[in-house]
Specification:
Keywords: Membrane, Transmembrane, Transmembrane helix. By secondary structure, the chain is α+β, with helices and mostly antiparallel strands. It is built from five helices and eight strands; from the N terminus they run E-H-H-H-E-E-E-E-H-E-E-E-H.
């Protein structure tokens, strides 16, 4: 029997995102001021309006790119994790074969705290909506000769299906 589940989680914006947005808005305001009221405006001969519009279009584009969602697609024993930016562009982050993982457990599980703290030689990929929540899991595995760790936030259906795929490595 084939297994297929998908789940989308929206990334919560943090302080770094809000500072980025404030910086972009300030930069757009500065460019608008430069293009409109300085001596540069005299040499642009009316192009200042077009440059102002381009500065604000760029600001809106960059701000919208901070709107991230992660989609988890479980097909049989493979979990695909996609990053969706601004609800328009999709990028495949990685595919994990759950028959070949080392461990999958909650980040707040006391039994796996020691393993979670070991990060030397690991590439960590954060694909969780809010890493501070209780339902965040980590997966350690090897791919392309490198050790990797993925933080993700699946629903209960995906966790139960993963447990059936590899009951020894998936700890609920």
């Amino acid at each position: 029997m084939d297994i297929f589940y998908e789940y989308i989680v929206k990334r919560k914006m943090d302080t770094k995102d809000y500072l980025f947005i404030a910086g972009i808005v300030l930069l757009a305001l500065l460019l608008t001021f430069i293009f409109t009221f300085t001596i540069v405006a005299q040499y642009l001969f009316g192009m200042w309006l077009l440059l102002d519009a381009a500065a604000w279009w760029g600001a809106v584009f960059l701000i919208r790119q901070r709107n991230l969602e992660f989609e988890y697609i479980l097909t049989n024993n493979e979990l695909d994790i996609d990053k969706i930016m601004a609800r328009q562009r999709r990028k495949r982050l990685l595919t994990i074969n759950f028959k070949e993982i080392e461990v999958c457990a909650r980040t707040h599980d006391v039994m796996f705290k020691h393993q979670l703290e070991r990060t030397e030689g690991l590439t960590v990929i954060d694909a969780a909506g809010n890493p501070e929540e209780e339902n965040v899991y980590f997966v350690d595995f090897s791919a392309d000769g490198a050790r990797k760790r993925v933080l993700f936030q699946p629903n209960e259906k995906i966790i139960e299906a993963l447990k059936k795929v590899n009951p020894r490595a998936v700890n609920v």
